[in-house]
Amino acid sequence: MCIRYKLQESHFGRFIFDITIVIMDTDLQSKQKDAVIGVLTKIETSTQKFTEDHAVATLLRLSLGTEDIVSNEALADVIAFSLYEESDYGIANWNCYFGPPVATYENGAIKEQILRELITSEMVGYWRGQASLFGNPVLRSRYLG
Q1: What average pLDDT does range 65-94 have in this prediction?
Q2: Are 116 and 101 in contact (CB under 8 A)?
Q3: How far apart are the C-alpha atoms of 14 and 11, rounded to whole Å?
Q4: What pLDDT is stored for residue 54 in this prediction?
Q5: Residue 19, H or E segment
Q6: 116 secondary structure, DSSP code
Q7: Concatenated DSSP letters of 53-93
Q8: According to the lineage, what is the superkingdom (predicted)?
Q9: What is the C-alpha to C-alpha distance for residues 28 and 90, in angstroms, rounded to an integer?
């Protein structure tokens, strides 16, 4: 049994993470890894410049298909490109340069679209490993940011 995270699309068009415990099929995990590497490799080898981090996050999420269960590695890749740089919310609430997308409701409530607790030392180690695979400055900066 493994911890996996469900990605759910909110009515704001962003993805929110719902923690669940499931058993993930190894074939599905392998397919997700191949899909993520495929997207990142296309960006790496493309003559088109990718400068929008969130476009990469969208491409990664779309590459995972209709599955609502995402492996830890695929989740780490999506999160790497979903966080906002120079985030006022991140500075004020996470005490760091990066912050999550947030939803603000009419009643003034704020909901983080990515929970800080999802970002573990294992995820940061995974990002470092991913950065070593690519030379594209957008990919590298996001994984090493």
Answers
A1: 85
A2: no
A3: 7
A4: 75
A5: strand 15-22
A6: G
A7: HHHHHHHHHHHTTT-SEE-HHHHHHHHHHHSBTT-HHIIII
A8: Bacteria
A9: 33
